Amino acid sequence: MNIQKKTPLSRKASNHLHIVIMAGGSGTRLWPLSRKREPKQFHRFVPDKKTLLEETWNRAKKVLPDAKNIHFSTTTAYKDRIKELIPEVDIQNIIVEPSSRGTAAAIALTTAHIHTSDPEAIIATIASDHFITNDDAFVSALLSAFQTVVKFPEKILTVGINPTEPDTGLGYIKMGEEIDNILNHRVFSIEEFKEKPDVKTAEHYLTNW
């Protein structure tokens, strides 16, 4: 898949697209299978598949094939493991937190790091430990997201999916007005976001949001 053929982005805009794979988490929700030394992103859950980290890398390369703008955000404990699994990644593209301070701090650090060399960067952060069965749908959504931010550079964009059941471990988005349709993906404003609600609230969101 070539991003130049899939989106109407100019070559200049395409050169400023970056993907950051968030790979510093310890995967505590999957313990005891996931451990501090070998968290979820380094596990292989389907026999004929690679680790979740490798699957994420391959998925990202479908969007940015030359991989020069694909980065990892991680901690010192996992830097060598990432390089072992993804030997083709430039070591300069593995951005290491000096100490673990959570997702928001990690994103801030990687953003600052990328901005030093590319002040016009458009950055997508994606998880390294998600199991995704439809790569084409994911890639299409990510391409649409990039195109949307190019069109609306003052906006921060999030990609969501429709929930099928209430879950207290995830965040919920209340959609506002539809503002565009880009690459066959509907784009909405966000009215409200709620992280990890209780069961009753999650049930309300499922039927009313």
Tell me what you see in this structure.
The chain is of the alpha/beta class. Helices cover 33% and strands 22% of the residues. The chain has helices at 3-6, 11-14, 52-61, 76-85, 103-117, 135-151, 199-208, and strands at residues 17-22, 70-75, 94-97, 122-127, 171-182, 185-195. The strands form 2 sheets. Strands 3-2-1-4 form a 4-stranded parallel β-sheet, with helices on both faces. The longest helix has 17 residues, at 135-151. The protein is globular. The two termini are 34 Å apart.
The share of residues in helices is: 25-40%
Low-confidence stretches: 1-5
Outline: globular
Order of helices and strands: HHEHEHEHEHEEH
Query: Can you give the mean pLDDT?
Result: 88
Radius of gyration: 18 Å
Strand segment count: 6
How far apart the termini lie comes to: 34 Å
Main β sheet profile: 4 strands, parallel
Task: Figure out the total of helices.
Answer: 7
SS-based class: alpha/beta
Residue fraction in strands: 15-25%
Q: Taking strands numbered 1, 2, ... along the chain, how are they ordered across the largest sheet?
A: 3-2-1-4
Helix and strand topology:
Layout: H1 3-6, H2 11-14, E1 17-22, H3 52-61, E2 70-75, H4 76-85, E3 94-97, H5 103-117, E4 122-127, H6 135-151, E5 171-182, E6 185-195, H7 199-208
Parallel strand pairs: 1-2, 1-4, 2-3
Antiparallel strand pairs: 5-6
